[in-house]
Structures are given as structure tokens and as C-alpha cells.
Amino acid sequence: MITEPRINDEIRTPQLRLIGPKGEQVGVIATSVALNLAREANLDLVEVAPNAQPPVAKLIDYGKYKYNEKIKAREARRNQSTAEVKEIRFRLKIDDHDFEVKKGHVTRFLNGGDKVKVTIMLRGREQSRPVGGVELLQRLAEEVEEFGSVESQPRQDGRNIIMVLAPKGKKVQTQSEQRRRGAESRAERQARQAARLNAKREAQAAAAEAESKVSDATANKTSSQKTTSKEGSNA
User: Fold this and answer.
1) Residue 102 belongs to some domain of the structure
2) Which of 113, 93, 122 has the alpha carbon at shortest distance from 165?
3) Are 103 and 53 members of one domain?
4) pLDDT digit string (tens) for 9-54?
5) Contact 88, 116 (CB under 8 A)
6) Where a domain ends, among 149, 167, 185?
7) Is 0.70 topped by the overall pTM?
């Protein structure tokens, strides 16, 4: 259980090491002086390191401090990925179809971010030749190496042989990462839209310029024709 820090008059030590509201080191001063500074600044004196010699306290807004700590704790809980250990059991004498089915389960668990404990169950005389179980586990590890790696090598455990696989290359995105990626995607979309808009404007400007040149050329040609016609009439 997390205990609340001592604040203001709850701090009983005669002196403490004070940290200012911006993180600056004030130094070792009497607790009564620190309390006066807190009142003058309309802040709280909060003991942040009670076991230090002398204890360390900081001038902060305790209400805002508690709110920020609550937000941090909530984010920490959200960012935790609770991986489970799943178990898949094989018989030593397993046909190819069943092997593929169980391999699919292993792959799905690894993709989900869970570890997988693979157990080979030995019966009767199989217990005298555990090497067959080791070879089966090695085959499985090789065929799922894209999704997981061997965390615990095959070993005999009583009548069974076990191996543990851990997810490989599987990153569980936290909400902050998802928000960051979403912001990056939005920025990329906006950049592409801006580029398309600029290209469209440039194309329109080029078309307008070309149209203007054609119009000027037509006007010049018409003017030239009129001049030639007039000169012919005068002649």
C-alpha cells in the first residue's frame, strides 16, 4: 500500500533539505523557515525523501502533484503487458496433421504476446529414450522461430520433457505509442494532401499561363493580319 507523504505541519523534523518549486536546490534549512516560504508562495511543503539525512522536501502544489501522480499511475497500468504462459502438450508419437494443428496453436499464442510451455508426455518405454522428445521439441522450435525463440531449452521433468518459447519480435503497443503513431499518420496524410494541393495549384497556374500565351499569340496574329490588310488597301 502506498502511503501519503507528510506535508506542511505534518513534517516534524527540525531541519530539511529544501527543493524549490522549479527544482532548484535551496539547501538545508530549518523546517519552520521552509514552512514560511511555502505559505508566502501559496504552495505546500511536501516531504519527498523522508529517509534521507536530513529529509528532503519540495515546495509544490500538492493537489496538482497528487493529480499528476494519479495520471502517471494510470498510464503505467495501461502500458503494462501481462503475458501469460500457455501450455501445449504433445505425444511423442504424433502424426503430421496433429503436429501442424498444435504448431498452429503455439504460433497463435506467440503472436498474442504469450509465452508457451511445450510439454512432451512420455509413456512406458518412451521414458528410456527421451532423445526423441528433445528432437521433436527442436523441430517445433525451428518451425516457429519466426514467431518465438527458445527461452528454456528442452529438459526432462519426471515423465515429461518441457521447453519454453518466448514471443519474438512481438511488441505490444502502449496507448501512448498508438497515439504517437496515429499523430504521425495524420501528419503524413496532411503532408500528402498539401503536396497534392500544391501540385494542383501549380498545374492550374501552368495551364493559365499557357492559355495566356495562346491568347496573346492569337491577339498578335489577328493584329498582324489587320495591319497587313490595311497596308494592302492603301496600296
Assistant:
1) yes
2) 113
3) no
4) 999 999 999 999 988 898 999 999 999 999 999 999 999 888 888 9
5) yes
6) 167
7) no
